[in-house]
C-alpha cells in the first residue's frame, strides 16, 4: 500500500496543490485502495495487486474528467512562456552532450526482466564461488605430496592442482556467460537505455523491499563467515605446532577458509538479485551517464580481489618454492576482505540514502 501512496504523490507533485486537487487526490487514493483490497481478496499477490492498480489508475490525464480536475491539469500543462534567459556560457571542455531520449519501459517488460534475474540468480553466485575455490587443489596437493600422503611426483601434484584450478575457472566463466545470455533480450535495461517510469519504479521498489529482509540476513551471515574464515587455519597451525602433519592440516585449513569465503559470497549474491534489478529498473537513462557506478561495490571488489590474491599465492609458491608458507596470504586476505565488505556495504547504504 505504501507503494501506491508514493506513486500517487508522484502523480500529483507536478500540479498546484489547490483544494480541488487535494480533494481529487484523496478520492483517487480511496479508489486505488479499494481496488487493491479487492485484488488481494481475489488471491492476487501484493506485487500483482500493486501492478494492476497502477495500470488501471496510473494515467491522471485519463482520470481527470471523472475527478473533475481536467481544467486544472490543462492549465498546469500549458504554462505561460516568458522570454528565456540567456543560457550561461559553458566551456567546451566541460560541456556534456544531451542525454538521448529513450522509450519508456512497460511494467510487463520490467516484470519479465525481474523474473529472468530471479531464475538466474544462482549462476553468478556459483560462478564467483568457483573462482574463490579454484586455488584449493593447488594449495593442498603439493603439500600432501610433500608429506607423503599423496603417492605421486611433485610435478604431477602441481599439474593436477593447476588443471583443477583451470577447470573451476572455466566452469565459473560458463555460468556467467549463461546468466548473461538469459538477459540478452533485455539489453536496453542492462544498459539503461529507457526512460524512467514512476509506475515501473514503484513496482521495482516494492519488489526490492519484499526481499530486503532476506538480503540483510544473507549479508550478516556472509560477513560472519568472512570474519571467522581464518579460524581453521589459525587453529590447525597452533594446535599442531611442531607436528609432522602441521603443513598438511594448515593447507586444509586454507581450503576451509576459501570454502567459508565462497559460501558467504554465494549466499549474498544469490539474495541480492531483487535490489540489483530494482536499481536497474528505477535508474532509467541515469545508469548510462557514467557519473556513478550502481553496481555492488562488494561484487566489483571481489571480482578483482580474489583472483589477485590467487596470483600472489601462486607467484610466491612457484617462484619462491614456498608452498609451506605461501598459504598465509589467505587468512590475511580473508580478514581484510571481511573489513572491506563491511565498509563497502556501509558506503553503499550511505550513497543510496543521499
Brief description of this entry?
The chain is 73% helix and 0% strand. By secondary structure, the protein is an all-alpha fold. It has two domains: 2-75; 113-353, no CATH class.
How many strand units? 0
Helix content: over 70%
Q: Tell the overall outline.
A: elongated
Main beta sheet strand tally, sense and closure: none
Number of domains: 2
The number of distinct helices, counting runs of at least 4 residues, comes to: 17
What is the gyration radius calculated from CA atoms? Answer: 28 Å
* Topology as a string of helices (H) and strands (E): HHHHHHHHHHHHHHHHH
Roughly how many Å apart are the termini? 24 Å
Keywords: Membrane, Transmembrane, Transmembrane helix
Region (Disordered): 76-106
Transmembrane segments: 125-144, 156-179, 218-240, 246-269, 297-319, 325-347
InterPro entries: Perm_prefix_1
Index terms:
354 residues, mainly alpha, 2 domains, elongated, membrane, transmembrane, transmembrane helix, Perm_prefix_1
3D architecture notes:
The chain has 354 residues and is mainly α. The chain folds into 2 domains: 2-75; 113-353, no CATH class. Helix content is 73%, strand content 0%. The chain has helices at 2-12, 19-41, 46-57, 60-67, 70-77, 107-119, 122-133, 136-146, 154-182, 187-190, 198-228, 231-239, 246-270, 273-283, 297-320, 323-326, 329-353. Helix 11 packs antiparallel against helix 17. The longest helix has 31 residues, at 198-228. The chain is elongated. The two termini are 24 Å apart.
